[in-house]
Amino acid sequence: MVLRYVGRWYPSAKGQFVIPIVVFGECRERGMVRGLIEIRFPRHEHMDCANVNVNVRGHAGSKKTPTPDCAPPQQHVDLINTLTSTPYKSATTQSILDSFARIFFCMSKNGISNISTPKKARIRGAADFNDAMGIPYYHTDLFKFYGVSKHQGWAILKEGIEEEVSEDLPGMSFDRTHHNNPAIEERRGRKPLLTPAQVYEADRFLQDVGWDARVLTWAQLAKELDFGVSGDTMKRALGSLDYHKCVACTKGWVSQRCAKQRVQFAETHLALKPDANDWHNVRFSDEVHCRVGPQGKLRLIRRPGERYCSDCIQEQLNRDDEREWETSHIWAAVGYNFKSDLTFYNTPGNRNGKLSLTVYRDQILEPVVGSWLQDPNQSHFILEEDNDSGHGGGSSSNIVATWKRRNALDHYFNCPNSPDLAPIENCWQVMKQHLKKHPHWNESEVRELAHEGWDGVSQDFINERVNSMPRRLQDCIDMEGRLTGY
Q1: Which helix (H) or strand (E) holds 176?
Q2: 236 vs 41, 199, 200, CA distance in Å?
Q3: Please, which residues have CB within 8 angstroms of residue 414's CB and are 6 or more apart in sequence?
Q4: What is the pLDDT of residues 174-189, one digit of tens each?
Q5: What is the pLDDT of residues 306-338, one digit of tens each?
Q6: Any idea where the domains of the chain sit in the sequence?
Q7: How far apart (Å, rounded) are the C-alpha atoms in residues 288 and 322?
Q8: Topology of domain 256-478, CATH
Q9: Radius of gyration of the CA atoms of the chain, in A
Q10: What is the C-alpha separation between 284 and 469, in angstroms, rounded?
């Protein structure tokens, strides 16, 4: 620290001599800085350190340097040198040094509080990248490039090590005062009306009670749990866990007879294939039908006031015209690490896509499934089919059943009215959603969009659905044969 006399001394109203002095020094955070202080000396008392007052004026970093117009008295110079000398340890000297450090240099504990967060992040990121890539470098060069001192640079790299961090984030450091460290208790803002334990209790209540709890309003849920809060408070608290109100999905009604069949089917197949790996050799097959033409209500672009504009009205077709629209019929199969191509088939004599025994044998089994059986690179598989009459399940002597026996095809039929027990149903949804996004007015457009949507079904998506088969069967048993959420 350097003190320089920069102005003429002058008497104050309290009978003191006032000497303006500029303080020069090097700040670790801000480089060379200067500030103005006033040292007041009593007129008639003995001038020593015990009766000297230091008055800070101005601020650090001032760009204006006063020009001295006279030299201070020698006794003042001697006193200033005494105050700033290292061996002198009086309370006044320590007060001057502390005031200088606090006010002019704005020094923090580690000297980096005034460095911006983005700059800290760049320094730490550059060091982490070089360390991770094994690039040799000198830390001093890194600190010099970003304009920080060696002390500041190491403080930035080590920042956060002394903070309380969770065990799973041992190397995590924080640049901000309020850094949302999960291991540090939140002390900002108003205390929440619901504690984390209460939010967890509400979550478990919804999971354990099920439907009867989920149909409650937010206010009814708060009252049921006796939390003493409003419905809006309950809504915000559970919103942190992504709970929200929405329209309930509807599932078809299952008769008692069908429910009993579903439970028996699930118990039998779960006993035969209890693990997910047991289902890896099953290929789930199904048909889907896509109509050419408008699909429901179309979404168009318009401005306010153009609702009834002729360009913004979708005209309805009469029944006779609707019957003229063609329908594309598609067959496919999926399995673990397996996805077949789409097979388009025709149904002569009907437009509803009803699969006949002849069509199924000649357009699907012979050209597609037969090629799988004859391919030596294909592993053994079991073909799953639904209970459509065209699949040959009604008799053991029809042409489809005969073809299966002759070609030694292992297969089984899914339980009636059980689309939730066939993973391929989930795959069709991806393709149908893609078709709904684009208008298709002829069969070629339908086929092109269908192939694009089918390509969007990833193999990981299929594998996850196949691995869920044991869980699907168990859920069917637990729900006493009612349709599950799959």
Answers
A1: none
A2: 64, 10, 14
A3: 384, 385, 386, 387, 421, 422
A4: 555 555 656 666 677 7
A5: 666 766 766 655 545 554 456 788 999 999 999
A6: 2-104, 114-189, 196-239, 256-478
A7: 19
A8: Nucleotidyltransferase; domain 5 (3.30.420)
A9: 41
A10: 11
